[in-house]
Specification:
alpha/beta; nine-stranded mixed β-sheet; 12 helices; single chain
Length: 461
């Protein structure tokens, strides 16, 4: 089993070699971070400001962070609490429109992939969310009602009974679920590399191994003393933002870990089904998320060790044995047919989380500084749309995405250490205990521990 090395996706791709920043460069726009947010920002800006010189600075290499490590879900989930976004905007309809734009953004990403000829192994697959206890099914019914109230059309969130779940994918002990047909799946490592190539074809310059240590009005400075001087500087560093100045407690890196199997034998797939390649998740509080890959593997991810002390980011993604074991146990519980299938690769990555778990986009036209971050694990679609908001703001375009309610949304800082570490670990521990109790007793109602944890975390609509 490979452990770390960024991800299964990235180890299978041939990556380009790009120069690092040396000396001083003048540009029109400087973007920090060559992941989905930074690259989509560059892409949108090539449309909004044709001919502008755009420089992207990356600390490691394209796709090193969450963009090259995630599970490949193209989901319309809003990154945050829709009630909180309604409060930011001062009206409910603005938050509804954000949800509608997230649904539309899935189509826009797929359309761009196809129209630009990006080889990202993308397809619209839908998402099955499975309940394995009556309490979980109760939560899914409440979730469906909330989704309908916040902008989902009836046909975009469908309730499934146990037989309907089994007809799509044979999950052990499934009692029912929800189906979201809009969701797509893709190879995120392939997409981030293809997106970098597309941006370079449009004239964007990407400089790797150029860690930015300071961002000020009009300039970004690297550890080696290089400098990009530009009237617009956009920070697109998501879970790695805690290393940059004022963001040290504004956003923290929360860990998510993944394992992927060797290809399953034909007999196992005959029993499991999953012929539609739907993205799969469960309704547990510490939920799992899965993908069936094009070459017949199962990928499963979850939180594992949720947070490293003092906002550590975990380097190249090596995953501790306890987390690997927990994910494998969950996989075997969902699909007993996998018990003899070896694990091929394990890795971890960090996602950016604000104190209220809501994404934030901001741009100050006075000093030319902007950012987009805080997707809380729902970043593949969110990065596309938040980057569009950021690009429109920085280009001075008063278009619809420049006024979505994540624009200007701010939250208080996270608590200092060790309170932060204790709080994050304590919250996930409560969720894990609630899951264990509900599954052991086949509970009809959600554990009060989980309800209290969700309330404290601001995770409920």
């Amino acid at each position: 089993m490979i452990n770390g090395a960024i991800s299964h996706w990235m180890t299978r791709e041939k990556t380009a070699t790009r120069p690092q920043l040396e000396g001083h460069i003048d540009a029109d726009i400087c973007i920090i971070g060559a992941g989905f947010t930074g690259l989509w920002s560059a892409f949108h800006l090539t449309n909004l400001r044709p001919g502008a010189r755009i420089i992207v600075l990356e600390k490691e290499q394209v796709g090193y962070g969450a963009s090259g490590r995630n599970a490949g879900w193209l989901s319309p989930l809003v990154p945050g609490n829709r009630k909180a976004f309604a409060r930011t905007a001062g009206n409910r309809q603005a938050a509804v429109r954000l949800q509608e734009r997230m649904l539309e953004a899935v189509d826009e990403v797929l359309d761009t992939i196809h129209s630009e000829g990006l080889d990202a192994q993308a397809r619209r697959s839908g998402n099955v969310v499975v309940a394995r206890t009556p309490a979980a099914m109760q939560r899914l019914r409440a979730r469906r009602l909330s989704d309908l109230q916040w902008g989902y059309p009836e046909n975009e969130v469908q309730e499934l009974d146990a037989a309907a779940v089994a007809a799509r994918v044979n999950v052990a002990q499934a009692q029912g679920g929800l189906y979201y047909p809009t969701v797509g799946r893709l190879n995120p490592g392939r997409l981030v590399l293809e997106l970098a190539r597309l941006c370079e074809d449009r004239g964007v310059e990407i400089l790797e191994h150029s860690p930015v240590t300071e961002i000020t009005a009009g300039r970004a400075t690297t550890a080696a003393g290089g400098e990009v001087r530009a009237p617009v500087v956009l920070r697109c560093t998501e879970g790695y933002s805690a290393t940059l100045g004022k963001e040290r407690r504004r956003i923290i890196p929360v860990n998510s870990s993944i394992v992927v199997t060797q290809p399953l034998p034909e007999q196992a797939w005959n029993e499991i089904g999953w012929n539609g390649y739907e993205c799969l998740s469960d309704a547990a509080h510490v939920f799992s998320y899965l993908q069936k890959t094009d070459d017949g593997r199962i990928l499963i991810g979850g939180r594992g060790n949720p947070y490293r002390f003092a906002s550590g980011t975990g380097g190249n993604g090596e995953t501790d044995p306890h987390t690997v074991q927990a994910l494998v146990h969950r996989l075997h519980s969902l699909f007993p047919q996998t018990t003899e299938v070896p694990i091929a690769h394990a890795w971890s990555g960090v996602l950016g989380v604000t104190r209220d778990w809501c994404a934030s986009v901001a741009y100050d036209p006075v000093n030319g500084l902007g950012h987009a971050n805080g997707y809380a694990g729902h970043g593949v679609t969110s990065a596309y749309l938040a980057a569009k908001s950021l690009a429109e703001l920085s280009a001075g375009k008063k278009e619809e995405d420049a006024v979505l309610p994540w624009v200007g949304h701010r939250t208080r800082n996270w608590e200092p250490e060790p309170i932060r570490w204790l709080g994050v670990h304590g919250m996930y521990r409560l969720f894990a205990l609630a899951d264990r109790w509900e599954e052991k007793t086949n509970a009809a109602k959600t554990s009060w521990l989980a309800r209290a944890g969700s309330h404290l975390a601001g995770l409920n609509d």
